Amino acid sequence: MLYLMFLLLLGLVLGLVAVASNPSPFFAALGLVVVAGLGCGLLVGHGASFLSLVLFLIYLGGMLVVFAYSAALAAEPYPESLGSLPVAALMVVYLLGVGVVSSLFWGGWYEACWLAVEELGEFCASRADVAGVAMMYSFGGGMLVVSAWVLLLTLFVVLELTRGLGRGTLRAV
């Protein structure tokens, strides 16, 4: 389990560096899907399987549509890929930054143990994410409505930013 969690964390950091250094929305959207999958895998490893499923489905259902639409509007004839020199140079700079910051906080991390929430209690009758789901729908209903409105606003902001020289996507055809 320790090796799997280490590989998921390593893939998450490398995926985030690839997304941050890539100027093309085509490859960045694919990288974000990979990073979201690895992040949800980390949540599953920590015992929050339902939360990771909900987050991954919301991401694929909502935000990927926004990225695909903005990538279609901001089409480049020759997009930069991960193998090009400026993107590779940015990746090296970001990886060196991650290495410097992680070396500052490195002390004592090798002794940590990754356990699921259920393994910490002696007699756990329910999973930890089941209680979180009940709390999310009972007390967090208003926050779910606000989050839906924020996602809709984000969609319109992205559409406005990527409309280019034309009148935008909401024009009459």
UniProtKB/TrEMBL annotation:
It comes from Himantolophus albinares. It holds the Pfam family Oxidored_q3. Belongs to the complex I subunit 6 family. The chain crosses the membrane at residues 25-44, 51-75, 87-109, 130-159. It is a multi-pass membrane protein. Its EC number is 7.1.1.2. This is NADH-ubiquinone oxidoreductase chain 6. Residues 1-15 form the signal peptide.
